[in-house]
Each structure stands twice: as C-alpha cells, then as structure tokens.
Amino acid sequence: MTARTSTDAGRDIPEATVARLPVYLRALTGLAEARTATCSSEELAAAAGVNSAMLRKDLSYLGSYGTRGVGYDVEYLRYQIAREIGVTQDWPVVIVGIGNLGHALANYSGFRSRGFRVVALLDADPSRHGEVVAGIDVQPFDDLEEIVAEHGVAIGVIATPAVAAQDVADRMVAAGVSSILNFAPTVLSVPEGVDVRKVDLSIELQILAYHVQRKNGIVEAEEEPA
Amino acid sequence: MTARTSTDAGRDIPEATVARLPVYLRALTGLAEARTATCSSEELAAAAGVNSAMLRKDLSYLGSYGTRGVGYDVEYLRYQIAREIGVTQDWPVVIVGIGNLGHALANYSGFRSRGFRVVALLDADPSRHGEVVAGIDVQPFDDLEEIVAEHGVAIGVIATPAVAAQDVADRMVAAGVSSILNFAPTVLSVPEGVDVRKVDLSIELQILAYHVQRKNGIVEAEEEPA
DNA sequence: TAGATTGTTAATCGATTAACAATC
DNA sequence: TAGATTGTTAATCGATTAACAATC
C-alpha cells in the first residue's frame, strides 16, 4: 500500500526469509548454468524445495523483480538476491581451530565460490603453526587481532574444542568480529549486536534419531498386536 | 486437563521442541559433570541459552519431571530426555563420501559419545578404498545395501559432492535408511516418511553476511551524514 | 482480448512468552 | 505457614499458505 521510491528497498526481511535467500540463490545459479533465461515462481520453488506461495512472499520483501504473466529473469533475480545477501562483495573470514573440521572447512570450495575468502587459519597449538592447509599457513591464535584489523574481518568461524570456544569468541568480539559461525558444541554468550549461528553435528543426528524412534517405536511402545 | 497414565507419555512433541531437547541434554550433562544434583528451570535455561518459560513448556511435552518449589533432579531429567530422544540406545550410522568433510565427520568424537556408532565409511572412488579413517576401512559405495541390512542402519550421512548426493540418497532410501543428514549443497527429494536434515556451511555464512551488511550497510545505503 | 503468473491480502498455523494457579 | 518454583493457560508474535486481484 505504501509508495516505494527506488532507494527505499523494502527493509526488515524476516529471519525465516533471510535463511532461504541463499537457497534461492543456489537454485538460480543452477538454472543459469542450465541456460534457463526465465522461470516461474512454481519452477524456482520446486528447485529450491519450497512452496511457490512462500517463494513469492519471500521475494516480495526484496522488491518487485518479476513480471506478471511471465515469471522471473533468472540472471536478474540472481543478482538482486546476491546483492541483498551481500555476496556480490568479498567477505574475509578467519577460521580458528585447525583440527579435522577446521581442515575440512579450510578446504571447502563452496566458501570461495560464494564470496568468502579465508584470510587466515589460526590455532592455539604451536605444533600446528607453519603447517600449510589449503595453501594457507596455520598461524598462532594470538595473531587474531592483527589479522582482523588488517583484513577487516567481520566473520569468524570457530572450529575448536568446546572448552576453548567461549574464549575464542570473546577474543573475536573484542577484535571487532561481529558475526560468528560456531561449530563447537557449546552455547556461546556474546554481547548484543554480535550474531552467532551454530552448526552442531551431533544435535542434527539426535534430531534424526528422535524421528527414527518415533517411526519405529510406535509399535514397540503401544504393544498393540495385530 | 486429560488424565495421563504412566504408559501414555504425552506424544506429539513440536518440531521446535525436538530440536532443543539435545541442547538441554548437553546442558544437563554439563551440570552432572559439575556434580550439580538439582537445578531450576531458570538455571537450566541459562545453561542452554533459552528463556525459562520456553524450557518449562518444552519439558512439559515429555511429562512432569520436576518438583514444584524445588526444581529438576539433573540425573533423572537427563535420563528422561535421553530416552525421549532415543540416545539411550546405540544408533549405527553410515557415512558416504570420505573427502575432507567425511574425514572430519568420521573422526568426530561427539558422535560416539552421544550414542552414534559409525559402522561404515563408503566412497565411490576406488582410489580411496582400503584407506583407514578413524580406525575404519573405507569401502566401496556398492557395499551400501549389504551394510545397511547387516547393521540395521537407519541413519545415513551424505558428505559427497552435490552432483552425487541425490543418487546416494536414492540408494540409501532403497536400502532402508529412513533418515538422512545431508552435507551436500543440494536439495534432496525423498519419498514421504524419509527424514532429511541438511547442514549447509556456505548458507550459514551467507546468512551471517546478510546481517553484517545490514549492520554496516545502513550508513552506506542511506547516505545520511551526521 | 485471453491466458498466465506475479505480488499481496487475509486466514491459518505454530512457536514464544508472560503470567499465575498449583503445589512442593 | 511462607517462599520457591513448576506446569499450564492465555496472549502475543511470527511464519506459512491459500486465494485472488492486478497486470503483463
């Protein structure tokens, strides 16, 4: 209902929508690679694994990038979403904790290709310093502040054991990192304004286990013979 | 309002609650290790990083395991949640795709300690067969059906490149796997009744990037000089 | 103009939170 | 009995979905 100027780009996107934008971006990249010029909300929604009404609602928060009766221009929409997320620019990232998972993250090609550049790998263990992982020297954790300042790092990844994670987070925040991706199985407390997302592998498995148990367990639990 | 017998354990737990139960379980394990016998919903909620009203509501779906005026018995509640999730038993798990991430997952100690047992590591690449990772031989992907049948595997982990993931999922489902944890950056389609959870590292970073941009971008976007 | 498909409204659904009666 | 804290109700909030007017 409210008139929108071209500079007022419809702020305040719901969290649930923000979390799906990267999924749409990936689907659009797939369509672009398949040389698809145009797609309907129905097609894009299918590729992204969501309901088309939800897709249209989500996109409506960004602006009006489709054409009624026609659909969306794949390349144009792809760019608009990338711009909205912020992945048209390059984000310097620091990874702390170069164990098995840190190794895997450092080598993960999906970061590079989506606008993230790993500028440093840090580890508190001196025996790891100097090791080269994914073409990058592992450096002492104490270099954190210097590296964050030098590269303007806003995003830090924690792949340390749980006991170290809060300390690492505190140091990151003090150094100026405002967003943290936490792989350590622990709850981090951070000041207002700092964003933490957590990826917890064993929690994901536990959620699955619950559902397996439900599916099988009904028989067992109710002891209802046929 | 409805009377509950001891065998009717209050089914139908909301998804959001299910996803938090493992977090509570971990917090309780932490309290138990610290020799805390009893805790209030306030304390447990703080340890889990949630609101205490939400914690109590969540726990109320499991049953009535606290004591008014007193709180919860840590060990007792820990066991009840573990039982509800299903991690009092052992879950055999298969990991497919033994690249960097597969290595990290195979070595992840958090699985073992939480009731998950990696029974096989599979990879389609013959050059990887016979390699020993985390004490387990890497086997051909074609052994999948045999392994699933032999160990009664219900949970499969996909850590392959995106292009292979759908095929792997199809084979897993056909072999009898009913729950899949997918690390490949692609949308899987599976039949009704099969559960898929996805962990997408680059999507997590993109969500963070969006928020960083919002925090910084407001200045830049609105061009509002002080 | 007729057919297609968006963008938006309104309805529904589910999740969170505050408040408090029940009760230890 | 008085204080503490649960378990539950009811209010609020946010997310999803169906439906359709707008419009290409």
From TrEMBL, chains A, B:
Residues 86-187 form the CoA-binding domain. It comes from the Bacteria. Keywords: Cytoplasm, DNA-binding, NAD, Repressor, Transcription, Transcription regulation. The keyword Cytoplasm applies. It is found in: Cytoplasm. GO terms for molecular function: DNA binding; DNA-binding transcription factor activity. SUPFAM superfamilies: NAD(P)-binding Rossmann-fold domains, Winged helix' DNA-binding domain. Residues 23-62 bind DNA. The keyword Repressor applies. GO terms for biological process: negative regulation of DNA-templated transcription; response to redox state. NAD(+) binds at residues 97-102. GO terms for cellular component: cytoplasm. InterPro entries: CoA-bd, NAD(P)-bd_dom_sf, Rex_actinobacterial-type, Rex_DNA-bd_C_dom, Tscrpt_rep_Rex, WH-like_DNA-bd_sf, WH_DNA-bd_sf. Pfam families: CoA_binding, Put_DNA-bind_N. Modulates transcription in response to changes in cellular NADH/NAD(+) redox state. Belongs to the transcriptional regulatory Rex family. Homodimer. HAMAP family: Rex. NCBIfam families: PRK05472.1-3, PRK05472.2-1, PRK05472.2-2, PRK05472.2-3, PRK05472.2-4, PRK05472.2-5. This is Redox-sensing transcriptional repressor Rex.
